[in-house]
Each structure stands twice: as C-alpha cells, then as structure tokens.
Amino acid sequence: MASFLNQANALFRKSLTYHKRHLRSNLRIILFPAFVFVLLGVIQHYVNKGNKEESKSQGSLIKEPEWPPLMQVPLPQFRAVETNDLPDPSCRATGSCPASVLITGTNSNLALSVGANLFPKFPTSRANFNPSTMVSYVFGTTDQLSDTLISDYGFDSYGSNVGLYLIQPECQVNSSYSFTSPDARVGVNVTVGCVQGLHLWRNSSSDIDDELLQGYHNGNNKGSINEIMAAFDILDSNSKNFKVNIWYNATSKYGGEDRPTLLRIPRAENMVSNAYIQSLVGAATKMTLEFVGEMPNYRNGGASDPLSYIIPLFFTWMILLLFPVIWSSLVYEKQQKLRIMMKMHGLGDSAYWMISYLYFLIISTVYMIIFFGVGYLIGLPFFRLNSYSVQWVFYLVYINLQISMAFLLSAFFSDVKTTTVVAYIMVFGTGLLGQGLFKNFIDDTKFSGTVLIVMELYPGFSLFRGLDELAQFGRKASELGSRGIGWDNLSDRNSGVKEVLIIMLVEWLVFVVASVYLDKVIVSMKSVGWNPLFFLKTSKKKAMLASEKPDPKIQESEVHVEMDKDDVAEEKMRVEHLLAESNASYPIICNNLTKVYPGKDGNPAKVAVEGLTLALPRGECFGMLGPNGAGKTSFISMMTGLTKPTSGTASVEGLDLLTQMDKIYTSMGVCPQHDIHWDTLSGREHLLFYGRLKNLGGAALHRDVEDLLKQVNLFDGGVADKLAGKYSGGMKRRLSVAISLIGNPKIIYMDEPSTGLDPASRNMLWGVIKQAKKERAIILTTHSMEEAEHICDRIGIFVNGSFRCLGNPEELKGRYGETYVFTMTTSPGLEMEVEKLVKDLSPNAKKVYHLSGTQKFELPKGEVKKISYVFRAVKLAKERIPIQAWGIADTSLEEVFIKVAGK
C-alpha cells in the first residue's frame, strides 16, 4: 500500500504534467487581471483627456483661488464670558462679545508683548481692501473649514448666519469693511465685520487647560458654551530662541460626519510668529502668510475619479472568475469518473483533497499577486493607500473560502456544462446585484445591520462588501492626502471589513467540514460509503453505511437462488467451506451477493445480481458470459466499490468488501467497460501516475512501464508519448488493460477488455492476460466466446442476475453440448442420399441448415458411439456419390451459451 506521501507525490506530478499541457489556458486565466487593468488604465486616460479638453474649452486651466488663511472664531453666542477679566455675559445680547486668546509663558514680559502684537490694527481711514493687503492682518470666520481647500465658505457672501471678520484690538461701533474676492465663483464684493481680539494672561499652562476643559464640558454638540478662540504658551522663549505651544479646537465635525476635517491652524501659527518678531524689532518687520490652497488641476465640475465607483463591481467579477474554473474542474473529474478511477487504483481521499486544494490555492494566489501587482503599478489608490497586510489577509481568506465552496457545490453537480452555466450566472449575477442592490443597503445607515450580515452569508456579497469598503477608504485617502484602511480601522463603527473577515473565516471552516462530510455521504449513496451519522459511531464497522443490511423496501421473496444446478450448488458449498476455514489461497470469495435497484415511476424493482456465490483461487482467470443486461457490469461495479450491494458480502484478499474497501483498492487493478483517461496525458504518463499510486518508484517504475507498453504494443513509433486523446479506440483499450496490470495487483477486474480490437491486437492482448494471471486472480466479462475459451480457466454463464452454470470450457461443452454437428456439401440433387447416410449414422439426427448442396445436421452423441464410425461411413459413401466437402465438430462454446442462456 502506497503511503500518503507517495500518493500525494503521484497526484502532484500528474497534476503538474496535466496543467503544463494546459499552460496557455492557465496563463490566460492568471493574466486576466493585467488585461483588465490595462483596459481600465486606457479608459482612465481618455476620461482624463476628455476632462482636460473640456476644461480648456471652458477657460483653460482652473487655477484654485489663493485664499488668505483665516482664524477659527467662535460663534457670538459661545464666546467666553465671565465676571473677572473676561467680558460681562450681557455682550451676548448685542453680539459684541470679543474672541478671547489666552497667553502664558516663563518670560511673562515677552509673552505679554507677543500678545499685544497678535492683532495688527487696521487703519480707520480705509474701508475696503483686496487679497494682497489682507495678508498683513488677521481675519477669521465662524464657519468650519471643508474637507478640501478648493473653496472656503468663510469667504462666501451667500452664507446664512456665518460671517467673515477682521480681528482688531478694538472695534468701532457698526464698523464693517469690504474686499474683492479672489474667486469669481464667490462674488465680487464681500462684506467683512469686526470682532475684538482680547488677549488675557494666565499664570500657567495648567490654568489654561482647566479653563478650556471647563468651557468644553459645559458645551453641547455644537461646541464649547464658553469657547476660547486660541491659547499660546510662549514657554522659555527669549530674543534668540522662540518656542511656543498652541491650543486650538479640534472637536468640530464637518457635515455631522465622523470624517477627517481640515483645521484652521496655519493662521494661528503665523499670527504668533509674526507677533514675536514685531515684539523684538518693531511693527515694520512682517512675516506674512499669503495664502493656502489646492494644487492647480483640471476638474470637471469637481467630479471624483469615475473608477472609484465601478471598482467594487469590476473587482468582484475579476476575483469571482476563478470560481467557475475551480468548480468545473472538480465536476469534470467526477463526470469523467477520473476520480473514482484513481481511487480504485489506490489514491486515498486525503491525498486527493490536499493536492487538489493546494493546486487551486497556488493558482488563486498567483492570480491575486498579479491582480494586486498590476493594480499597484498603474497607481490605483485602492491598492496603494490601503494597508497591504489588510488587503492580503482579505484576499487570502476569500480565495480559500472560494475554493472550499467549489468543493462543497461539486458534491451536488455531475455535469460540466450545467456547472459552467450556473457558475457564470453566479459570477455576473453577484456583481450586478451587489452594485445595483446590495450597495444601496450598505450605504443606507437606516438599513438593519442584522439583515446585512444575513446577506453577507452569501460569499459573493461578503467579497463585494469588503471591496466596496477598500474602495471607499482608498478614495477618501486619495482626496484628503491621508492613508486608507489599516488594522486600527477595522473596529470603526462604520467599517464592515472586520465583519466580513469574520464571516468568511467561519464559512471557510464550515465549508471545508461540510465538503468532507458530503463527499463521504453523497458518494455512499451510490457506492460502499459512509452513514450520514458516521461521526457518532464508535466502531468502524458500525460507522459504515447500512449497505451491509438488506434494503427494507425489497421483499425477501424477490431474491432467490435456484439450487437445482449441481455446479452452482457445488460452488456454494465450496464457499461455505472456505468461509469456515479462511483459506488464503482464494483471494476472492463472494457470498450471496445481491444487487436490487428500487423501482421508480411505478415500475417494479430490478434484480441485477441475485445471490451470487463464487470463490476464485489465485492464478485463475474467471470469465463471466451473459447477454446484455444480465448483471455482469453490476457485479463488477460492486466488487470495485462503484455501487453498494443490497445484501450479501464478499471478501477480497481477506478484507471485507463492505467495511474495508479503501484497503482493497490498494491491491486491485481495474479495466473498466469504458476507457477513462486524461486526453492531455500520454500513455507513458498514465502508467507512471498509476504506478506511483501502486508504490512503484525509481528504476523499477520505469522498467515496468516500458515492459507493459511493449506488451500492449504501445511502445514503438513514439506511441507511448502520444497524447491519449489522439489514440484510436483500440489503442485506448490496450492502455486501459496496461493500467489495470501496473504495479502487480493481486486482483484484476476486466470488463470486456478486447472490445473494439482488431484480430491481431486481440490475440496479442489475450497473450498478455494469460501471462498476467500467474499469482493473480482475474475476473473478466466478455461477449466473445472465442476469448473466453482461449484465456479463461473457468467460465460462468450469467443470466438474469445469477449463474446458470459454472465450469471450464471443456466441461461446459461436454455437459451442455449433447450433439455433434455434421456438415456435408454435394452437387444439388443428391440431398436425399446425404440424408439417408445421416439417418444410418443417427436415426434421430436433425437437419438445422440447407442451402443448395450444403446441409448441416445435429447428431445426438448417444447415437454416435464412435467418431470412427462416421469416417468409415463417409469413406464408403464417396464410392457412390461425389462429396465435395464434409466435416464433423463437437458443440462450440457459443452453442452452449445460446442453449443455456435461452432456457
């Protein structure tokens, strides 16, 4: 018996060779992502080119406005008020409360000097200005900054209750200003109000922290109810060294969404730096910050990257396209009976599962590497900005889930065409439903999260949800110049990546277990397999399917054995004796083996094999003869594990057919009725694979392969290395016989091995089988009486599911051949003379054929005492009549078969 490693090695080598022959198809599959990404890149190029042309036609390059930086000013009703150095709360009624700034530092004189220069005074003689003069003064707004710098609502004259302010040490009553906007989209003239900037000293940064925290705690969801505009700690700065800590309000949210928001920090930094310089060298020295803004670019109405919206759909299709390939490959092996053929030659389930799974995992991983690599190289934010490790964990979990789902579904399908159609419907249906329906549920915050989880139990929707989340994170990161999703984002309330990862991991494990379970149970419905509750059994024998028990739907009266045939009864007695003494020289012992197919559509049950009892010694070739439908193939199917017996049992090499079939497989060879080969493997490669399954290796393996190829005449002329798909029918049949003989199996089953062979090939094959039966037991079914007589040591004529007779060819001809066949040819008109001659030899002779001058008679053996009498009579007759030809023959095996089968 080959070890697990030898089995895995054999299958792995075969798979490598097989898929090497399909290299072009595999490359097309693996390189498909590259093709799609190139296509998307071309589309993106022309979209960008179209946007650029449109922008040029509308006024060439859209240059972003150069906005002067603003301070974030608290709303009038929230500005800090107190009874000490802060203003009286009554200012809120008139909207005249100042915007307060807190100052502290180790060098109090320097700190207070800096505070006094924070807000340069605007000349009262002027009432308007333009952006170029705004940079020398401090302006602020009560509106929040948006998530981009494309526009600033603080300069928007169409805002409702928000405003633009000039921050001054003091404000005149009803003072206001105007300026010309740098952005024609906002409006030409914008009104500017005045707000007093009040700087207040605090003894320490701790005092500032307490005051800011108290004002924040008393606030509501719109901000602090006693809000300080900013605070500065000048620390231990001096004339040669400037250090400062800045407090600013970072608690605001844009649009009520929990998303990244730009803050008004640049003006606070410039304001304190400029005040420090002026406190040292005077007001004539300035360090101005002219503007902040986006990079100039071409825009089409501010539209985002169009690919970001179709990425989940296209990527779902791209990843799912592996699924039909995997699923149809598994069903193909099932439909062509390749897997059961491998199993009958010793391949265990564990090795099959491991190598098949490993191969599909390698293909899927290479596919995903190219998918990720090409996407990264063309610069998609989806790949570049999201965490690489998060992406790869997501991809690896899903491709494992996809493979396990293909194994699971393959248990329910047995036709490749149906499987392929259903698979592609699932692929494209998943993408379309995901984009058109499921995405709406994801984006709807009011939609039930529980229902989403239920929908994500379908793996395709889990894939779509994960890709959609990655696309959204990548798009936002690209817009805001930040990073995309990372491990720290998985627990975000609005992120579904962690959820789908957990679902996919659990489903992967469940699908693997369910696949193994269904493989055992569903296969057992047709063959010797496992009970649906096998995992609850403690005894291995009890764990097997109830195939060892008769079907309760079949009445005992339907199965019976005729015991009036001496040879059949003698065989039964011999089997009973062998079962009692356990004789190892008989590798096959069948005891009352029965197969009944249940009736369907009102038809009665069909008895295919009826109480078959047989003992086969080593070194014997047993031939089963019988008409079509007699049950020969059903018997072979039971012995090879393809179907389970309805009742009875059999012992093969001392192993129970019902409970130890996996061990039996390692010691048997099978030549099935229909050839089962891989079209893209050569004859030599077939034999190498099955030889390795039979534990052959090294020089012994190659020697046995060459010997068998020579024996079946598949060696010369390069035929051995020719693909099996290009073999003729006879060559395929000879290869099937060679496969059954490789590895020196102790038991060989051959179901009509010479079908379709020419006479020369048939004679050659008979010699191979006669040579092979030494030290082996061979069961052979055939319709050729000549074949059975030539190579079989014993023959059983099988009719309606049971043996009618058993014995060697000569015994059967002697037992059932009751006549001689006498043939004579003379000139026409002498028929009566011939009939008189025959009647003299055998009074009860019967004419069975007459054409022109040729007649054929059956002579009862009891009336022909000696054959020499016939020769003497013909010799005397030649003196009277001209005899052209004559002959006498014993009954042929074919005539015996016709006579027995016709009873």
UniProtKB/TrEMBL annotation:
Pfam family, one: ABC_tran
Domain ABC transporter as annotated: residue spans: 588-825
Source superkingdom: Eukaryota
Membrane topology category: Multi-pass membrane protein
GO-annotated molecular function: ABC-type transporter activity; ATP binding; ATP hydrolysis activity; lipid transporter activity
Gene3D superfamilies, alphabetized: P-loop containing nucleotide triphosphate hydrolases
This protein's record includes keyword Ribosomal protein: no
Keywords of the record: ATP-binding, Membrane, Nucleotide-binding, Transmembrane, Transmembrane helix
Transmembrane segments: 29-47, 309-332, 352-380, 392-414, 421-438
GO cellular-component term (any): membrane
Subcellular location per the Swiss-Prot or TrEMBL entry: Membrane
InterPro entries per record: AAA+_ATPase, ABC2_TM, ABC_transporter-like_ATP-bd, ABC_transporter-like_CS, ABCA, P-loop_NTPase
Recorded family membership: Belongs to the ABC transporter superfamily. ABCA family. CPR flippase (TC 3.A.1.211) subfamily.
Name of the molecule in the record: ATP-binding cassette
